[in-house]
Specification:
- This protein has 303 residues and is an alpha/beta fold.
- Helix content is 45%, strand content 12%.
- It has an 8-stranded parallel β-sheet.
- The radius of gyration is 20 Å and the shape is globular.
- The N and C termini lie far apart (73 Å).
């Protein structure tokens, strides 16, 4: 019998071979997510979103029923399950590799039973029972660095500058503690994925520094690294814009993450991000030596 984590790891490897990084497409079934809240609340709309992500080449479909924006209230497990379970079942019926975006062991249990391969936990394992559920199902655990709950999180990209000494060192240390707690509950090292949590208990500069130092994260760890920069507020360091108008910066972040060795990039705008990554990969693989450059250089116009 193939374990869910084995399916997940194969999908990651396929994505990395094809375009240098695996694509995790976002399907938020919530009324209040920061960029697409309310778009996919109806079952038909959520299914259409899954169809879209699969057609556009998502390696992983990340389905969530609780907003993680700053200030968002906790959603009871029963309500999360009501929101997401039909869509998880639908996505798995299409053969999609599904991750369930939740910090709830109860929600994770229901969705893994329905065929999900991974749990995407943005709480940095606030509840150790979540790790037990992941281990019992042989699933993958995307463990994101965070401090505190969304309800207590400061506004978008606000966090004290003094909150970290060296942000990479501190994030790695705190993530490592959570990872060891997961291991103690039976989650294998091979099942773990590290997400540095851009925008979660970090100001814009701290998030940008973490992204800029992705290669250090990759080198420091023996697990895949996932980067979730898409549409986040820290991207406005290159110019203020509402979430839906941060596509250029989001794609730039995805290209940078791929070039720095990350294994997964979580995105809202999958088709265009994939297009950019595939061109980047194609150009990487071409032999552009001096002769090729000379042949491609424009010829002077004689007049």
């Amino acid at each position: 019998m193939t374990l869910p984590v084995e399916v997940f790891r194969r999908v990651l490897e396929r994505g990395r071979v094809m375009r240098g990084i695996a694509l995790m497409g976002v399907c938020n079934i919530t009324p209040d997510s920061f960029s697409d809240g309310g778009f996919y609340e109806e079952p038909a709309a959520a299914r259409a979103r899954v169809d879209e992500l699969v057609a556009q080449g998502a390696d992983i479909v990340d389905i969530g029923g609780e907003s993680t924006r700053p200030g968002a209230g906790a959603v009871p497990a029963e309500e999360q399950i009501r929101r997401v379970l039909d869509t998880v079942r639908y996505a798995t019926s299409l053969g999609a590799c599904v991750s369930i975006d939740t910090a709830s062991a109860q929600v994770a249990e229901a969705c893994l039973e329905a065929g999900a391969c991974a749990v995407n936990d943005v709480s940095c394992l606030r509840d150790d029972a979540l790790a037990t559920v992941v281990a019992d199902h042989g699933a993958a655990l995307v463990l994101m660095h965070a401090r505190g709950t969304q309800e207590k999180m400061l506004g978008f990209s606000q966090y004290p500058e003094s909150g970290y000494g060296d942000v990479v060192r501190d994030v790695l240390a705190e993530w490592g503690v959570a990872a060891e707690r997961a291991r103690a509950r039976g989650v294998t090292r091979e099942a773990l994925v590290m997400d540095p949590g851009l925008g979660f208990a970090k100001n814009a500069r701290q998030s940008a520094e973490l992204l800029a130092r992705t290669r250090e994260l990759v080198r420091a760890l023996d697990v895949p690294v996932a980067i979730g920069a898409s549409r986040k507020s820290f991207l406005t360091i290159v110019g203020d814009a509402p979430p839906a108008e941060r596509l250029g910066a989001s794609i730039g972040a995805a290209l940078y993450a791929a070039s720095a060795g990350a294994s997964i990039v979580r995105v809202h705008d999958l088709r265009l991000t994939r297009q950019a990554l595939e061109l980047w990969r194609l150009l990487q693989q071409r032999d552009v030596g001096p002769a090729t450059r000379a042949a491609a250089a424009p010829t002077a116009i004689q007049g």
